[in-house]
Design a protein that fits this description.
Blueprint lengths: L7 E5 H11 L3 E10 L2 E4 L13 E5 L2 H13 L4 E2 L12 E3 L5 E5 L13 E4 L1 H6 L4 H4 L2 E2 L5 H5 L1 E7 L6 H10 L2 H10 L4 E3 L2
Parallel strand pairs: 4-7, 4-8
Antiparallel strand pairs: 1-10, 2-10, 2-11, 3-8, 3-9, 5-6
Amino acid sequence: DSGDIDANYFQHYPYLDWFNEEYGTDIVAVGEVHYEAFGIYPGKSSDLEQIAQGAVFGIPNDGTNEARALLLMEQCGLIKLREGIALSATVLDIDENPHGLVIREMEAAQIPLSLQDLDFGVINFNFAYQAGLKASTDALVVEDADSVAAETYSNVVCVKAGNEQNEAVLALIEALQTEEVRDFILTTYGGAVLPRF
């Protein structure tokens, strides 16, 4: 927003919206590149079908990713959120919790490091990957590639409003949305990261 850099590429739409509102910036998305699937990973427990009463789940404590974690838990039938709530859900919006799950809100980067103290962790792909966890083999469940989450949480290239047609920005988008990048994403991350172009 200050003009120090031409573009950034690390955020999804809800984070972008939150950041603009929080800091009064005018940053806009100019192209989707990839989507990183959220997953539920085992800690002390490994069976979501035979879940223990009071099992402890670690979920991210930041606004955008907390809602996403809760939506994945709801997709698995673990909880039910209040009717009509979605991308702004918090633990206060849990309407039904039949297993009496304990939901521990944590710094997202700490969840993979705390799995030994949790029954399950709902983890952003990037933090799972950094911890050596593979969505294809370690996650018990991941978000669907055609889900609302995939559309909503695609990582986007962003610029200051008014710079959408900047020559360097257009070249960056063109370079990122190639078959070479698509093949790299698919072969490197085993389906846990998916191209969105």
